[in-house]
Specification:
This protein is an all-alpha fold. It has one domain. 89% of the residues lie in helices and 0% in strands. The protein contains two helices and no strands. α1 packs antiparallel against α2. The radius of gyration is 19 Å and the shape is rod-shaped. The two termini are 27 Å apart. The model has no long low-confidence stretch (mean pLDDT 91).
């Protein structure tokens, strides 16, 4: 379950990075569009940071579980 969550996060991250890059690469058109573009990029950056944090946390949990199982097997 945790591994599938980690895989899903990685897939979402790849897609969100593409969306973020596409938004940032939009040409300058109007003041309003430029402001909206910056806001979208900032929100996608925040989302990507959350995905990074989730992936890191899931990895730590999986390592801790593996260590607990390994330690229990030694007893």
């Amino acid at each position: 379950m945790l591994a599938s969550m980690q895989e899903a996060a990685a897939g979402a991250q790849t897609e969100m990075r593409g969306m973020r890059d596409a938004a940032q690469d939009l040409p300058r058109i109007t003041k309003e569009l430029n402001k909206a573009k910056r806001a979208v990029v900032q929100q996608l950056d925040a989302l990507l940071a959350e995905i990074d944090s989730t992936t890191f946390t899931v990895s730590n949990i999986m390592e801790a579980i593996e260590k607990m199982i390994s330690d229990a097997a030694k007893l």
